[in-house]
Amino acid sequence: MSIILRVPATASAPELLLRPWRDDDQDALIVAHQDPVLRSRTRFPVRTTADARRFVDEVREDWQAGVRFAFAVCEPNPQGGDRLVANVVLKNVAPGRPDAEVGYWTAAPARGRGVAGRAVDAVSRWAFTHFAGLARLDLLHQIDNPASCRVAEKAGFGFVEVLPARPPFPRDGHRHVRHAAAVG
Predict the structure, then answer these.
(1) What is the per-residue pLDDT for 183?
(2) Distance in angstroms (rounded) separating the CA atoms of residues 124 and 69
(3) What are phi and psi of 54, to 5 degrees?
(4) How far is CA 131 from the centre of its chain?
(5) What is the pLDDT of residues 97-149, one digit of tens each?
(6) Which pLDDT does position 69 carry in this prediction?
(7) Is the distance from CB of 68 to CB of 59 less than 8 angstroms?
(8) Which of 75, 110, 125, 152 could, after both became Cys, cross-link 115 (CB 3.0–4.6 A)?
(9) Is 176 helix (H, G, I), strand (E, B) or coil?
């Protein structure tokens, strides 16, 4: 399955292209993971070429299995190619299951520009229209990450509850929810 989602440019933000990860994304993935903030928030930081290759291979296998859909979020370059700015993933998808989860990370140079909210919204809309019976998406993050609260709000996810810390997450977290009925 090769899904490409486009988020139109706005007066203050460029177009976004969301597509499956490719082998030629590996260098950009390693660069993005050099950011200490990103490394502190992810369970599996990508530090080496082998890590990057494993990441791309695993997300490709997940797409083929139809259980997890990770999108490379890019800003297209008018001269050709694109620049990696984020990752959005739809996970815990199963036939007949009414809920799934959305996760994401944003590369340091793209933070604070609305990339994550726009990309999470696009993947959420795609999920609700693509998976019959999907009624709810959860977005989870650690309590010490207020930027993720803002992303959730911008993407139409309302705050629902505080979740207690449990391994592998060392801090309490927030659960935000978006329902299929909220898709307009």
Answers:
(1) 56
(2) 11
(3) -65, -45
(4) 17
(5) 999 999 999 999 999 999 999 999 999 999 999 999 999 999 999 999 999 99
(6) 97
(7) yes
(8) 110
(9) strand
DSSP 35: S
- CA 55 to centroid of chain Cα atoms: 14
182 secondary structure, DSSP code: G
Q: Which residue has the tokens 């309490």?
A: 172
Enumerate long-range contacts of 55-62, CB under 8 Å, 24 or more apart. Answer: 55/21, 55/26, 55/29, 56/21, 56/22, 56/23, 56/25, 56/26, 56/29, 59/20, 59/21, 59/89, 60/20, 60/21
Which residue in this structure is represented by tokens 């990309």? 119
pLDDT digits (tens, 9 = 90+) for 39-57: 988 888 899 999 999 999 9
Judged by DSSP in three states, 28 sits in helix
CB 63 within 8 A of CB 1: yes
Sign of CA dihedral 18, 15, 36, 155: negative
Q: Quote the CA–CA distance of 136 and 100 in Å, as a whole number.
A: 7
**Side chain identity, residue 16:** L
Residue 93 in contact with residue 68, Cβ under 8 Å? yes
